[in-house]
Amino acid sequence: MKKNKTHLTREQRYQIEALLVAKKSQKEIALILGKDPSVVSRELKRNSHTRGYSAPMAQMYVDERKKRFKQKRKFTDPIRRKIIRELTGEQWSPQQIVGKARKEGEPMVSHERIYQFIRDDKTNGGVLYKNLRHRLKHRKRAVGDNKVIIPDKVSIEQRPEIINQKQRFGDWEIDTIVGKENKGAILTVTERKTGFLLMKKL
């Protein structure tokens, strides 16, 4: 069975603590939990304290990071610089910027606010919008375009409202980042409610 889950529950953190006391290795713990070893390794690195790993403390760290992220974020200079850097250097979309920040527990404004920032920059003569694949415009299909037609495809405008409201877990959004001169690409998969981001180099 493929171990593709990266999140840990409160109960699993208590299991980790007990297994560490039992002198189990990280690889053994991952096998028992049904997780990838990297998940256990990251948990121990991020949520241990000076005296070792404690499940209650680890859960507290996780809850505090979630609480900080949910709080309203001001558009600070560090956030502005981070957005500009990832727009111009990484060619990431606003959704991907937010997803990465959420995954790392860093402060970030919403992707809607980032789009507004880009629009304001364009209005004032800036060129940040040029780093977006659609450049804030709806692209028209060229005559003779050999775009593949997907049978029974459902338009994004027709998707259920619950997906747009991001109220449930399990709705995924797939996108691609293409490098300059079409050299190299990265596939991104984002869970819409949590912003959890998966990336794979193509």
TrEMBL record:
One of its GO terms (cellular component) is cytosol. One of its GO terms (biological process) is transposition. GO terms for molecular function: transposase activity. The keyword ATP-binding does not apply. Pfam families: HTH_38. Residues 6-47 form the Transposase IS30-like HTH domain. The keyword Transport does not apply. Keywords: DNA recombination. InterPro entries: IS30-like_HTH (IPR025246), Transposase-Integrase (IPR051917), Transposase_IS30-like (IPR053392). NCBIfam families: transpos_IS30 (NF033563). This is Transposase IS30-like HTH domain-containing protein.
